[in-house]
Amino acid sequence: MKAVVLLSGGLDSATTLAIARKEGFACHALTFRYGQRHGREIEAARRVARSLGAVEHRVIDVDLRALGGSALTDARIEVPKDRPDLGDSGEIPPTYVPARNTIFLSYALAWAEVMDAWDIFIGVNSTDYSGYPDCRPEYINAFETMANLATKRAISGCRLSIHAPLIHWTKAQIIRRGLDLGVDYSQTLSCYDPGAEGKPCERCDSCLLRMRGFAENGLTDPAVQS
Amino acid sequence: MKAVVLLSGGLDSATTLAIARKEGFACHALTFRYGQRHGREIEAARRVARSLGAVEHRVIDVDLRALGGSALTDARIEVPKDRPDLGDSGEIPPTYVPARNTIFLSYALAWAEVMDAWDIFIGVNSTDYSGYPDCRPEYINAFETMANLATKRAISGCRLSIHAPLIHWTKAQIIRRGLDLGVDYSQTLSCYDPGAEGKPCERCDSCLLRMRGFAENGLTDPAVQS
């Protein structure tokens, strides 16, 4: 059984790939080059796809810089650092990229249709990022409903599924599951603003959430150690 | 009031732009360079955006060739010619591009969110193309529902609308409305397989549907004449 797995190279998507493999899917990993401040995420995605046994890995250029509107796609907007509440305030941080998950899932849908795959995996998580509207279960369900009307298979009556296995987990739970499945988190990169050497900044929301998740498991983040 | 208008440079999207302008929207036109066999569609879109008074026109590169699966994105798949039934058989032709409208609407959604626009126009039409799943009203409605859960405004309680004004019209009705609104159809290009000079082939489904629509209005297609 084939599945398309969205793979950013970060902790969540690496764990999602490991889960999809564990469930027996032949995983076709899909990564987007979308104007991140650094291309280090792409390198991390390549390492992760290889080590977690993806059967194929494609990288697609997506021009989100043409639209801007986020600290991750517009160099003039700063990535927030050292935020004590880590998104718990309910306010959406400037690292939110407008409609990003919708664009990514749309490409995944296209590839799934071309390959005749019926399953798409995405590592969204609503617990740690309640501020991102496109990480919520109701959004994922609405995308799945739309996807089942959008493609040729809509006419055949078969169903495409969007799997978001991490959606209700805490970062600590995600890490525990990933470690059980043998994910090497030293290969992943979650930082919103890594240094020139691909070193995590240890101060953005993404770094802080990760480090807290490892700490709750009595561990140190191996990406920070290495 | 701002609106994002998807503009391919063809007859339907030109008419849609004219309708959006007539309804009083400041139109931000969005065109995709996606691996068509020719870039003539882009030139047509530029002409149409200018002559129909779009306040802005952006062209975004979208790498659909990386996924293939259609006669419009894979040169090895032929564009069908001289088909007598013009899609009335219910069979989906090889010019269908997997998830294309979903990808295009996702970018429109991103741009709408960045600009704080609440309206997106798309020139899909279910009457002439019953074979394309992503041209049907139930698909457009499902996309709108998903879009209203996908973005920041989902949290604010405001509503984004996807307008598909042509969805129930025949090609002849679309042309009649466009002529009333002053659309110059000689500027548009709908052909799936235009010649090197940007001349329509007059044999693909898209050319045949257009020519029939003009004939039903007692006219000759000006793109064919010119």
Summarize the structure.
The structure is a homodimer of 226-residue chains. The first copy, chain A, is α/β, with parallel strands linked by helices.
How would you describe this structure to a colleague?
The structure is a homodimer of 226-residue chains. Helices cover 38% and strands 11% of the residues of chain A. The first copy, chain A, is built from eight helices and five strands, in the order βαβαβαβααβααα. Chain A has helices at 11-22, 40-51, 100-115, 137-150, 152-156, 171-180, 205-216, 222-225, and strands at 2-6, 26-33, 56-61, 119-121, 161-163. In chain A, strand 1 (2-6), helix 1 (11-22) and strand 2 form a beta-alpha-beta unit. The radius of gyration of chain A is 17 Å and the shape is globular. Chain A binds chain B through residues 58, 60-64, 66-69, 92, 96-103, 106-107, 109-111, 113-114, 133-134, 136, 138-139, 142-143, 145-147, 149-152, 154-155, and chain B through 58, 60-64, 66-69, 92, 96-103, 106-107, 109-111, 113-114, 133-134, 136, 138-139, 142-143, 145-147, 149-152, 154-155.
